[in-house]
């Protein structure tokens, strides 16, 4: 069976205080909070989702805010850097905006592309890169127009404890195509138009540690549940045993850890974020899965209050 991934579905990171996290991704980066829910495996923790206007796969940065978490160490077995794609010609706007918001910014370059490099408030390493692919983001906030707004992921930069194994899986297992090499880096491309460029650091890196400021896992797209089942069969043929399918309410997921130490997920595009909220009300209230609804009062007592940008009624 031959399979080729279309690219990233979402990326999930561990962060610190939920309000700091929310304010940065909405008020600074201009993303929409499309869902506030809880970590289904740790119901006392938020799971926040940020993306484009409709919460499309390929645009979703998700976070587990753990206010008391120690700082993690970014190294092998992780997504080391998370790039976001902006429209052509938008980097000057973003350089000015980030400096105006007191975010320390550095210029960088990889494979001939100019990059704006910076950290979020909890140490997560981010980049902005101009890309022509992907749809414009119609979500406008604080002077960010669709001509400049983040469109979604530019891709991901992977740090591996065994880069040769990670590269082999990307090419032979996930169906990505190696497109370029330069000193220190190998570039692969998936089939989609957003979240499709994956750079792997050539140097083997020691295993990092989980904590605030570190990516927990990277999720790849499956068109639907039938496609996900095909991926499961394909992975098993390659000697990989993924988990059973897990219901994440807004997508179905399977997981496996590749030999370079990075936790991979394959998530279905449907049903999406409008299954329990109207499109114009996404992210405005805490959503719980049916099996935890009876615990709402207890869960809400544990979660820290958060204030949404422009939300009526202020704090939840």
Automatic annotation (TrEMBL):
Domain of life: Bacteria
VOC domain boundaries: 7-131, 152-269
Any Pfam family hit: Glyoxalase
Classification via SUPFAM superfamilies: Glyoxalase/Bleomycin resistance protein/Dihydroxybiphenyl dioxygenase (SSF54593)
Matches recorded under InterPro entries: Extradiol_RC_dioxygenase (IPR052537), Glyas_Bleomycin-R_OHBP_Dase (IPR029068), Glyas_Fos-R_dOase_dom (IPR004360), VOC_core (IPR037523)
Name of the protein in question: Glyoxalase family protein
Organismal lineage: Bacteria, Bacillati, Bacillota, Bacilli, Bacillales
């Amino acid at each position: 069976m031959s399979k080729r991934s279309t690219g990233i579905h979402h990326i999930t990171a561990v962060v610190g205080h939920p309000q700091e996290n929310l304010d940065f991704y909405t008020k600074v980066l201009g993303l929409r909070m499309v869902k506030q829910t809880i970590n289904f495996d740790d119901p006392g923790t938020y799971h926040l989702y940020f993306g484009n206007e409709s919460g499309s796969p390929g645009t979703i940065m998700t976070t587990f805010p753990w206010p008391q978490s120690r700082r993690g160490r970014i190294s092998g077995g992780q997504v080391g850097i998370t790039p976001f794609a902006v429209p052509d010609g938008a980097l000057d706007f973003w350089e000015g905006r980030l400096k105006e918001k007191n975010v320390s910014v550095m210029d960088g370059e990889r494979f001939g592309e100019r990059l704006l490099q910076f950290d979020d408030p909890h140490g997560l390493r981010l980049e902005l890169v101009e890309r022509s692919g992907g749809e414009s983001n119609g979500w406008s906030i604080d002077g960010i127009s669709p001509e400049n707004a983040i469109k979604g992921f530019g891709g991901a930069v992977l740090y591996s404890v065994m880069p040769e194994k990670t590269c082999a899986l990307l090419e032979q297992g996930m169906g990505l195509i190696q497109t370029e090499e330069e000193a220190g880096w190998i570039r692969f491309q998936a089939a989609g138009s957003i979240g499709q460029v994956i750079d792997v650091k050539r140097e083997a890196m020691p295993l990092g540690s989980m904590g605030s400021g570190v990516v927990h896992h990277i999720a790849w797209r499956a068109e639907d549940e039938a496609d996900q089942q095909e991926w499961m069969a394909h992975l098993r043929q390659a000697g990989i045993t993924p988990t059973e399918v897990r219901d994440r309410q807004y997508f179905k997921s399977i997981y496996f850890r590749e030999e370079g130490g990075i936790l991979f997920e394959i998530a279905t595009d449907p049903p999406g974020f409008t299954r329990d909220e109207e499109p114009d009300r996404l992210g405005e209230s805490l959503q719980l899965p049916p099996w935890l609804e009876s615990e709402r009062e207890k869960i809400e007592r544990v979660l820290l209050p958060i204030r949404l940008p422009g939300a009526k009624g202020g704090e939840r």
